[in-house]
Amino acid sequence: MALSFYIIANRASYAIICVIKIKNTDMNANKTFLIFLTALGLNIHLLNLCHKISHCALVFTLIMLFAKIMFDKFGTQKTLLGTGFVVLANIIVSNSSYYIGQHIITGLVSTSLLSVLLSLFLGSTITRRLALGSISRNVSYFVICALVDGFIMSAFLLHSFSMNKVFSVLIAEISYKLVYASVAVALYHSLKYLAPKLNFFSQAITE
After folding, report:
1. Pick from 92, 111, 125, 128: most CB atoms within 10 A?
2. In 3D, which of 71, 50, 53, 42 has the Cα closest to residue 150?
């Protein structure tokens, strides 16, 4: 697991460094998109390698953050199409079985990946229609994504575990996601504020 999180940090850093170097031109727009899609895809793949609630929540938050940047820069349609391709590829290559304790949960991986896609779709679609300020809209995006994913996965797990166990997992998972999301929102807006002043990361997160 330590190696998995090292890979996440390494690829995320690589994506950031590449974006800093890329000029904001039409020629390089697709390169920027592919860099972020690669980082997003790696996080999506690692999501189902996690076996702790805190780790799953962290990786899911990174997925939401990368997707948010992509939604803002490349638009909803292009981002969802790219994410859909990544999700489909992961469903094809991943083992559909997943262990929780001594239980083998068949179909959990595919359900989890599709839940990610639906969460991002609903989070982006709903928040775009809300008459809110930038920070409130982004907070709403993370909250909606976390809730949608949490309830979908809880509904799926009800056929394998008791209501009390599923509910306790749901509360813990959403709590972790909201804590991580608050950090992600603060980071996102800090970078967005500092980017024009420092000429840093501006190609990726300034609108």
Report:
1. 111
2. 53
